[in-house]
């Protein structure tokens, strides 16, 4: 809009304010978008940071699960190396053939619920030898994950998730992405205060750039959480080891474990969708197509691993570098540290309190990117207030209830695990509420579509409607013809 030649300073100021807060389809102030590449020194530096974040996630998940399975430091080192190796193997195809967004495939805490259920089950408790308990638990978890992987591949490549994603609008995206970030604070903050002497200063350093170190004498539990030589990973890890399929023996299959893991897989798909959507915003891409989301979900499980999910999208907001080249460099680091075990174990010995402090900062960027989608919505509508209030409220309160009171008690362990996996995820509860309400409340009114902001995303439904979409998400060698864009 051109400025009027008359009208005084008041009108010019009003127009300036309107321009200042206008809707932006792409996030500004990003130094490198998806298709651009930083210099090699900067790319290596940021790629190493992504590797550290992925490694910290794997260490936190392994430290929780492996002791319950009867494993010692040697088994924990093997699990961490395997997770890191498979993360690299899955990350590269995701940047080539999946969504092509700068995201890293790492461990998902969602699968801890069925995995812990396997580890503490009666059939595992009768095993007296801890090593045998670890082996049999790992085989059962692998069998359940293989079946869940087939389900996840079917959901992605057969177009089911594409149909779901086509109905996503800003109203659904806001609670999904916001609670994907806020929900993970519940995992990060307790880890950070396990050793507050270094966790809180690390948090403050990241936020305000200052350093604070306490040297007071604390209890033995606190000292153990703060030290880097108590993890036992460096001495237990081999110098060179290449993870391979079925390294713990042939997988075993149990119907109850499979049902619970499939439910956890569905939750992981929902949370991955939230991370995909946050990633395209933080990497200055255009709105992601439903077909691209579908193929991204299908490529999540190229190889069988313990647990797979996305975590590193938060680092895009901190570094303002959204290049997929950086993520490919990060995958190279992960391959190196997973094979050269001593180096990977050295990095994995960083106190979890420092890792959790980093996460407390990074998760804020995902929550911020979710709230950023409110610019597409009409916040003066009572319909908007109702949908956002209900979805965010239930997304926070329902998981809190399930986490505090434990799983439901129906007499069926597998059903209890299914309910716990679904309703302990803030993002999943929020998207269920927001998705249903957005499609049903005042659906017949003419203003509903504009209030929900769907008209802003209309031209991003297919590749040929906006040239930027093809630049960001199209596949090489004309492979797009195998993935419908509608």
From TrEMBL:
<dbReference type="GO" id="GO:0022857">
    <property type="term" value="F:transmembrane transporter activity"/>
</dbReference>
<feature type="transmembrane region" description="Helical">
    <location>
        <begin position="140"/>
        <end position="161"/>
    </location>
</feature>
<feature type="transmembrane region" description="Helical">
    <location>
        <begin position="354"/>
        <end position="374"/>
    </location>
</feature>
<comment type="similarity">
    <text>Belongs to the nucleobase:cation symporter-2 (NCS2) (TC 2.A.40) family.</text>
</comment>
<feature type="transmembrane region" description="Helical">
    <location>
        <begin position="101"/>
        <end position="120"/>
    </location>
</feature>
<feature type="transmembrane region" description="Helical">
    <location>
        <begin position="258"/>
        <end position="282"/>
    </location>
</feature>
<dbReference type="GO" id="GO:0016020">
    <property type="term" value="C:membrane"/>
</dbReference>
<protein>
    <submittedName>
        <fullName>Nucleobase-ascorbate transporter 4</fullName>
    </submittedName>
</protein>
<feature type="transmembrane region" description="Helical">
    <location>
        <begin position="386"/>
        <end position="402"/>
    </location>
</feature>
<feature type="transmembrane region" description="Helical">
    <location>
        <begin position="414"/>
        <end position="437"/>
    </location>
</feature>
<feature type="transmembrane region" description="Helical">
    <location>
        <begin position="329"/>
        <end position="348"/>
    </location>
</feature>
<keyword id="KW-0472">Membrane</keyword>
<keyword id="KW-1133">Transmembrane helix</keyword>
<keyword id="KW-0812">Transmembrane</keyword>
<feature type="transmembrane region" description="Helical">
    <location>
        <begin position="173"/>
        <end position="192"/>
    </location>
</feature>
<dbReference type="InterPro" id="IPR006043">
    <property type="entry name" value="NCS2"/>
</dbReference>
<dbReference type="Pfam" id="PF00860">
    <property type="entry name" value="Xan_ur_permease"/>
</dbReference>
């Amino acid at each position: 809009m051109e400025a009027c030649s008359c009208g005084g300073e008041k009108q010019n100021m009003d127009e300036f304010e309107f321009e200042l807060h206008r809707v932006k389809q792409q996030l500004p102030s990003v130094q490198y978008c998806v298709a651009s590449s930083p210099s090699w020194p900067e790319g290596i530096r940021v790629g190493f940071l992504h590797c550290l974040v992925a490694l910290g996630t794997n260490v936190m998940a392994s430290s929780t699960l492996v002791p319950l399975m009867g494993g010692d430091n040697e088994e924990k080192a093997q699990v961490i190396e395997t997770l890191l190796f498979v993360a690299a193997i899955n990350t590269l195809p995701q940047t080539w053939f999946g969504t092509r967004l700068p995201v890293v495939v790492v461990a998902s805490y969602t699968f801890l619920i069925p995995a812990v259920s396997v580890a503490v089950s009666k059939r595992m408790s009768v095993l007296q030898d801890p090593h045998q308990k670890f082996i049999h638990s790992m085989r059962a978890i692998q069998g359940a994950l293989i079946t869940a992987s087939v389900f996840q591949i079917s959901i992605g490549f057969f177009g089911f998730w594409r149909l779901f994603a086509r109905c996503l609008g800003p109203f659904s995206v806001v609670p999904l992405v916001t609670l994907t970030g806020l929900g993970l604070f519940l995992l990060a903050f307790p880890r950070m205060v396990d050793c507050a002497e270094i966790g809180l200063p690390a948090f403050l350093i990241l936020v305000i750039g200052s350093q604070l170190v306490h040297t007071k004498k604390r209890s033995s539990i606190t000292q153990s959480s703060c030290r880097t030589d108590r993890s036992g990973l460096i001495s237990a890890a081999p110098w060179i080891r290449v993870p391979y399929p079925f390294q713990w023996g042939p997988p075993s299959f149990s119907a109850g474990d499979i049902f619970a893991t499939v439910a956890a897989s569905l939750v992981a798909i929902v949370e991955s969708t939230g991370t995909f959507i946050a990633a395209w915003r933080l990497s200055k891409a255009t709105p992601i197509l439903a077909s691209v989301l579908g193929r991204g979900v299908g490529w999540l499980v190229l190889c069988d691993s313990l647990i797979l999910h996305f975590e590193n999208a938060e680092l895009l907001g901190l570094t303002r570098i959204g290049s997929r080249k950086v993520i490919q460099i990060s995958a190279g680091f992960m391959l190196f540290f997973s094979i050269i075990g001593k180096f990977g174990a050295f990095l994995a010995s960083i106190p979890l309190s420092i890792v959790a402090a980093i996460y407390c900062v990074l998760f804020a960027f995902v929550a911020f990117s979710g709230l950023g989608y409110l610019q597409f919505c009409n916040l003066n509508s009572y319909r908007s207030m109702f949908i956002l209030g209900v979805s965010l409220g239930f997304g926070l309160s329902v998981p809190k209830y399930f986490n505090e009171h434990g799983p439901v008690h129906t007499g069926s362990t597998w059903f209890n695990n299914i309910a716990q996996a679904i309703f302990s995820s803030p993002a999943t509860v929020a998207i269920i509420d927001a998705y249903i309400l957005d499609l049903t409340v005042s659906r017949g009114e003419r203003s509903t579509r504009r209030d929900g902001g769907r008209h802003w995303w209309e031209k991003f439904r297919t590749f040929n409607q906006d040239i930027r979409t093809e630049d960001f998400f199209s596949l090489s060698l004309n492979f797009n013809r195998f993935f419908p864009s509608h």
